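Course exercise 7: structure representation. Students receive a sequence record and must write out the corresponding structure in token form. The form below is the worked example handed out in class, using DUF2848 domain-containing protein (225 residues). Read each field label carefully; the graders check that inputs and outputs are placed in the correct fields and that the protein name is recorded exactly as given.

STUDENT ID: A-19
EXERCISE PROTEIN: DUF2848 domain-containing protein
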Amino acid sequence: MTTLTFALPDGSTQTVPVTRLLNAGYAGRDQAEVRAHIDELAELGVPGPATIPTMYPIAPYLAQQTDVVEVQHGRTSGEAEWALVITDSGVLLTAACDHTDRNLEVHGVAWSKNASPDVIATAAWRLDEVRDHLDDITLKAWVGQDRRLIQDGTLGALLDPDHWLGVLAERGLDTPGTVLVSGTITMKSGVDQFADRWEVELGDPVTGATIDLAYTVRPLPDPID
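STUDENT ANSWER:
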């Protein structure tokens, strides 16, 4: 079983054995814009969902606190997201990056999500302590060794954590060890997402605190086939 460990603002740490990992998708708050995005993806061969927003079950071991993601080819990329982590003592909010196989995505989004890890930050905030200004928390991503900004927005662009906690409760999934990753915000045009490094940051404008993660994308050796 994968275990995640988080540093909290009060100096304590919390360890969470992951029992369930879920990836939200098409989770923008403006669902008309989401529909337009689905149409764009369809032109690239990515099948659209029957229902939006979506929620994909992912193998729990793919929730990883790592600084290296190994991939099979050059068309994989991350997505800046937040993650909810349900614990015995409450809900944590942290940064995440859903690394996705774009070649596999055209055959099935759920398959593409299971091909690489959801990278999770090693620090977290208690959701109750930031709930009153969640929409103002910033979400950014940079790619490459030269840190090219590829995503820049706020949590207000996405369906909020309480929406997803309600969905989990309806399905009996709001139990300790559940990790839900939020879905992502728009990528900037003209920035190559197929980079050798991804970095994601959550920023709290009220306290000035940040939570970040970074990892290198490393190709696996060529197979013998």
